[in-house]
């Protein structure tokens, strides 16, 4: 077979005439092309490194300074004020400075370089100061709160506690502020001197990697496809375009050609999290997991009908075209071979407890064919799941969206590799989705990739009339490689145990996804308020109607205006929002009074969101103080209580249109439905929402069947009603369309 010949670079035999080499030209050609590709990538990175190193200067600006210096001397004007002559005196005698003319040119070049570098330093410091200023995010410039984070925390819980509970917390806070906090804070200040970001590494380690519970449902989240349009029903074809688009995006990342997302089109957001998007796997450990990131990977790992395959993405140095990838995936779909013993549910190991997975990995996957096969998965660019069932959103069947979300969130607990940075899921009808591991990055990062993939698939790659990828496949490509396993009975027992743990988690998740059609961003803006604040206050009203009480509420906010920033918490259940909700529930207030209370709550929420984005939030600072206290062995009842409080309402808004791949006004049907996650508390709700356009909002509500106090569909209906009730306060006519 052709691939067998290409597996050996050269052969040699000992003959009476000496050593006889038989070189394989084909393999040497691929080695040559691989070297060329590697050096091209390296040279591009060197070039980008140079340009980045002298930013905001450039080689062109250096040349301009040199020419200006030389030109001034031609007209007998010494703009260096004698420095060129001074440098010339200090140049050593002899080569390469043998003539006065040469010595003058070198002196001018040295002077010009110094001026150029001083200019770069000055502009960098100026830019740093400008980007460090966050007052532009606030309507009232220069008016900052003098409350410490500790007292801001007390403000955030005062309306959730009775008088006795609040007095106790106030006492603990005072004791902490006076006795413990100053010592802990000194260590955080010290860390901030040498760490790029004083929060992010501890956040990644202690919140994600040290968690020993299963990551399925508890940590991983999902992202949906475009739900109102369909490009093709051919499963392999849709996957061929998507994978090609993803590797194209990776190539842009490698060449540093991805433009950063800009806040308000002005301030760049840190793109550090994108570095581990591809070629990354979470490796289980007994005490803590680690993220394994490789500089490159030339294949993807694929799961179908209980079998694992390795699919090469390149032929030599050339990325496979979508039609070639379609052919490779179709070969897997057509492969009739059965799973090997223990292979079908193998991925359940990534869905069970982390300690059990770490022990099984060490015991059964550290050598032989099992290690080789596992390496093929863990060293893949990403994981691909070819599902045998179909899912899509049917607007006439509301349950279809929830079933689609459940399939993406956990599948059957063994048809996703939950440890990969992300699993690309392909359903039988061509619909796609993602299941994403959370430790390496937050949702807006994978959203950036997903927008690129969907836009490239829809508007740049396209399909034939029969739904196949464009072009003709190369039939001589070697078929996908089937991974080989030797899984003993003891390992199969561990796999089954992990599967049962994961299945219990998955079966307990109630997911209710729905499209809210009465209005979207357009009508909310007519109410002259922030769309996010509008939805968050509606969630407070819905939750009070659902549970008869308020609860600590988590809303994620990005902190990517700081280097390596991740998230901060917006505590969106405020005194102002509870005052509005109580007035709404009482039903005795005039519309004007309710509008005033609502606007006050919305302004409070917007201000808290801005504070969180600009590093003035509460929770990450308290979290880091808690970590320091644990390192020092210092007991803090205040911090222990703060960090143990349950978030019974965990919420997140999903970013959309981070990159402009197409005009949403021209293509209003090209909308993704966002994504979702599991509930954080056993008796709480997880709510993810996407304000998907001028006239619609998608919601993903999760809870646990095992809780008698929660019901995802009931809460979803309360959200619907709360949105309508608040909109009716302003009596704004519904937008057309």
Automatic annotation (TrEMBL):
Main location: mitochondrion
Pathway annotation: Lipid metabolism; fatty acid beta-oxidation
Record-linked InterPro entries: Carn_acyl_trans, CAT-like_dom_sf, Cho/carn_acyl_trans, Cho/carn_acyl_trans_2, CPT_N
UniProt keywords, alphabetically: Acyltransferase, Fatty acid metabolism, Lipid metabolism, Membrane, Mitochondrion, Mitochondrion outer membrane, Transferase, Transmembrane, Transmembrane helix, Transport
One GO biological process term: long-chain fatty acid transport
Recorded coiled-coil stretches: none
Active site: 438
Topological relation to the membrane, as annotated: Multi-pass membrane protein
The enzyme's E.C. designation: 2.3.1.21
Carnitine O-palmitoyltransferase N-terminal domain boundaries: 1-47
PANTHER family noted in UniProt: CARNITINE O-ACYLTRANSFERASE, CARNITINE O-PALMITOYLTRANSFERASE 1, MUSCLE ISOFORM
Function in brief: Catalyzes the transfer of the acyl group of long-chain fatty acid-CoA conjugates onto carnitine, an essential step for the mitochondrial uptake of long-chain fatty acids and their subsequent beta-oxidation in the mitochondrion.
Recorded family membership: Belongs to the carnitine/choline acetyltransferase family.
Name of the molecule in the record: Carnitine O-palmitoyltransferase 1, muscle isoform
Organism: Bos indicus x Bos taurus (Hybrid cattle)
Organism lineage string: Eukaryota, Metazoa, Chordata, Craniata, Vertebrata
């Amino acid at each position: 077979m052709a691939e067998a010949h290409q597996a050996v670079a050269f052969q040699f035999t000992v003959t009476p005439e000496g050593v006889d080499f038989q070189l394989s030209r084909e393999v040497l050609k691929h080695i040559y092309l691989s070297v060329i590709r590697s050096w091209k990538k390296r040279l591009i990175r060197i070039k980008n490194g140079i340009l980045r190193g002298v930013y905001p200067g450039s080689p062109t600006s250096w040349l301009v300074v040199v020419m200006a210096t030389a030109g001034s001397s031609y007209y007998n004007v010494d703009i260096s004020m004698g420095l060129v002559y001074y440098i010339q005196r200090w140049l050593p005698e002899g080569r390469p400075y043998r003539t006065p003319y040469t010595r003058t040119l070198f002196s001018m070049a040295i002077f010009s370089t110094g001026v150029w570098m001083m200019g770069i330093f000055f502009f960098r410091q100026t830019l740093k100061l400008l980007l460090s200023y966050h007052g532009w995010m606030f309507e009232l410039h220069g008016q900052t709160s003098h409350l410490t984070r500790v007292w801001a925390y007390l403000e955030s819980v005062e309306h959730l506690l009775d008088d006795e509970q609040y007095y106790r917390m106030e006492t603990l806070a005072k004791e902490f502020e006076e006795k413990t906090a100053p010592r802990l804070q000194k260590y955080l200040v010290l860390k901030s001197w040498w760490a790029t970001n004083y929060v992010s590494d501890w956040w990644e380690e202690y919140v994600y990697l040290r968690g020993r519970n299963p990551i399925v449902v508890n940590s991983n989240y999902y992202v949906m496809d475009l739900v109102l349009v369909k490009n093709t029903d051919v499963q392999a074809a849709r996957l061929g375009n998507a994978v090609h688009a993803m590797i194209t995006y990776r190539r842009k990342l490698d060449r540093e050609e991805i433009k950063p997302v800009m806040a308000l089109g002005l301030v760049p957001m840190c793109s550090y999290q994108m570095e581990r998007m591809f070629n990354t796997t979470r490796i289980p450990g007994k005490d803590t997991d680690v993220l394994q990131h490789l500089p490159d990977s030339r294949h993807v790992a694929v799961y179908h009908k209980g079998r694992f395959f390795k699919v090469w993405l390149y032929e030599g140095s050339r990325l496979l075209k979508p039609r070639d990838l379609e052919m490779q995936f179709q070969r897997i779909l057509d492969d009739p071979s059965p799973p090997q013993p223990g292979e079908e549910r193998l991925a359940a190991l990534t869905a069970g407890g982390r300690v059990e997975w770490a022990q099984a990995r060490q015991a059964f996957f550290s050598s032989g064919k099992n290690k080789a096969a596992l390496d093929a998965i863990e060293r893949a660019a990403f994981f691909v799941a070819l599902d045998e069932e179909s899912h899509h959103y049917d607007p006439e069947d509301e349950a279809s969206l929830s079933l689609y979300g459940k399939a993406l969130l956990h599948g059957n607990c063994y048809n996703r590799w939950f440890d990969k940075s992300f699993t690309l899921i392909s359903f039988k009808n061509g619909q796609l989705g993602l299941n994403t591991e959370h430790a390496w990055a937050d949702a807006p990062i994978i959203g950036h990739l997903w927008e690129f993939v969907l836009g490239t698939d829809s508007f740049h790659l396209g399909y034939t009339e029969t739904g196949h990828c464009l072009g003709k496949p190369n039939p001589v490509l070697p078929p996908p490689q089937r991974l080989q396993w030797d899984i003993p009975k003891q390992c199969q027992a561990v796999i089954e145990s992990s599967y049962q743990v994961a299945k219990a988690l998955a079966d307990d998740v109630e997911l209710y996804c729905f499209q809210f059609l009465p209005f979207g961003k357009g009508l909310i803006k007519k109410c002259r308020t922030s769309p996010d604040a509008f939805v968050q206050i509606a969630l407070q009203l819905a939750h009070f109607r659902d549970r008869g009480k308020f609860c600590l509420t988590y809303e994620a906010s990005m902190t990517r205006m700081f280097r390596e920033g991740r998230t901060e918490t917006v505590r969106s259940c405020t005194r102002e929002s509870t005052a509005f909700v109580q007035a709404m529930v009482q039903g005795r207030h005039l519309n004007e009074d309710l509008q005033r209370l609502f606007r006050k709550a919305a302004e409070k929420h917007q201000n808290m969101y801005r504070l969180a984005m600009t590093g003035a939030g509460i929770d990450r600072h308290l979290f880091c103080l808690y970590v320091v206290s644990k390192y020092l062995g210092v007991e803090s009842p205040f911090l222990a209580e703060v960090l143990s409080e349950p978030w019974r309402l965990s919420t997140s808004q999903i970013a959309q249109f981070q990159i402009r791949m197409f005009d949403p006004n021209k293509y209003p049907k090209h909308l993704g439905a966002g994504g979702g996650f599991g509930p954080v508390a056993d008796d709480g709700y997880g709510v993810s929402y996407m304000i998907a356009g001028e006239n619609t909002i998608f919601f993903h509500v999760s809870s646990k069947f095992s809780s008698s106090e929660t019901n995802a569909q009931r809460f979803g209906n309360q959200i619907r009603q709360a949105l309508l009730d608040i909109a009716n306060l302003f009596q704004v006519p519904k937008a057309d369309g």
